[in-house]
Design goal:
Elements: H1 10-15, H2 23-38, H3 44-48, H4 51-62, H5 68-83, E1 88-99, E2 110-111, E3 120-130, E4 136-145, H6 155-158, H7 169-184, E5 189-194, H8 201-207, E6 214-218, E7 226-227, E8 230-231, H9 232-237, E9 243-249, E10 258-271, E11 281-289, E12 299-304, H10 311-322, H11 325-337, H12 348-371
Parallel strand pairs: 1-5, 5-6
Antiparallel strand pairs: 1-3, 2-3, 3-4, 6-12, 7-8, 9-10, 10-11, 11-12
Helix pairs in contact: 2-4, 2-12, 5-12, 7-8, 11-12
Length: about 375
């Protein structure tokens, strides 16, 4: 779809290519987005400001032509234009839970925690593009779903299923979406980033395909990942210290913010595949360990498909992974700044449509805050 040449406001600039071929629906989307942005902490009637606009918003979310994908695709196209302006763009992906237990009448919700916690809601796995200095450029992928209550407590059986039938498939779907965007941005290096949950061999296999985006994953120690020289952690820890790096660790829970000094080790390694997958993958491992901290020190094992041949390269990979915190800040903005868990709609499907608008509003709040 052609982009508006002279958009009248930010909502038209972000959603101008939306696949809604009824101008009234387009206009309603622009109005809802601006209302939500002007009053991000208000509920739908408070944000819309009048009965007519409130009813128009509810009818918009009921419309079968409107979906989360339709809303976000237009924003993603605007995001791609911003991505093209940078040489390196970090693309972390992460999962967050949306607890709607206070809305038991909403149809289509599912369990979001363990079997002992009866909370219900939705799960959101999103992927957000950032510059190297932490400015969010926009959302490039969003997967939202409700778990089947009948599947609760069947974790052991899921281990026997192929990855296509597991929630872990979310990591590959996100990476494949980033791959599509990489083709549209050949002058930009996209780096998909994931936390320890993303340490799955299928993702490394996907990233080994050329050409495509790069991958940076924090390894999960309990995976006991093997390389040709033995266990990954033991092999890299034995490498000489290439240098030291100071990073800032934000506050998390009861832990205060602090500065940390990390000893950096790195090495090239070839990952051994699981028995079901016979292809080996060559990667670079960067081990950043805090040796001066009393208590629980930082110990990151980062696995990447971006070559690491010097301390400067290793330091850059650690700084990239530190940027993953940006998506957690985005989630806090989405939940606290936009109060999406206070939205009250009759079905999970309508909540998802509303969430699509709220996600763009939360991005814009975060984006302008970082620019400021």
């Amino acid at each position: 779809m052609p982009r508006p040449e002279a958009p009248e406001h930010w909502a038209e600039e972000e959603f101008g290519t939306v696949r809604l071929f009824d101008n009234r629906l387009k206009g309603r989307l622009y109005t809802i987005a601006q209302d939500f942005y002007d009053c991000p902490e208000g509920n739908i009637p408070e944000a819309c400001g009048s009965k007519a606009r409130t009813m128009g918003a509810y009818r918009f979310f009921q419309n079968p032509k409107v979906t989360m994908d339709v809303v976000l695709t237009a924003h993603t196209e605007a995001t791609i234009e911003r991505i093209k302006q940078h040489q390196v763009v970090l693309v972390p992906q992460d999962t967050t839970t949306l607890n709607y237990s206070t809305h038991p009448m909403t149809e289509g919700l599912g369990p979001v925690n363990n079997t002992d916690d009866r909370a219900i809601g939705l799960l959101l796995h999103d992927t957000v593009a950032f510059t190297e200095d932490g400015t969010p450029l926009g959302i490039v992928d969003a997967q939202c779903w409700a778990r089947d209550p009948q599947e609760a407590g069947k974790k052991r059986r899921r281990k026997e299923l192929p990855i296509e039938q597991k929630e872990s498939m979310k990591w590959l779907r996100s990476f494949r979406k980033v791959s599509e965007i990489q083709k549209l941005c050949p002058e930009t290096m996209l780096v998909s980033i994931g936390d320890r949950e993303s340490d799955i061999y299928e993702l490394f296999l996907e990233a080994a395909k050329e050409p495509g985006p790069k991958l940076l994953v924090r390894a999960e120690r309990t995976r006991n990942r093997k390389v040709e020289q033995g266990f990954l952690w033991d092999f890299v820890a034995k490498q000489k210290i290439a240098g030291c790096l100071k990073i800032h660790v934000p506050r998390r829970g009861s832990s205060k913010a602090r500065d940390a000094w990390l000893d950096i080790h790195f090495a090239e390694a070839t990952l051994h595949p699981p028995k079901s997958q016979g292809t080996k993958v060559t990667v670079w491992a960067v081990y950043a360990v805090e040796s001066r901290q009393v208590g629980r020190p930082i110990a990151w094992m980062l696995i990447t498909t971006v070559p690491v041949t010097s301390f400067e390269d290793a330091r850059k990979r650690v700084e990239w992974y530190s940027g993953r915190w940006g998506i957690e800040v985005y989630h806090r903005t989405l939940k606290s700044g936009c109060r999406i868990r206070d939205r009250q709609l009759e079905t999970a499907d309508r909540l998802e449509k509303c969430l699509g608008v709220d996600m763009v509003v939360a991005w814009r709040v975060y984006y302008l805050a970082m620019l400021g």
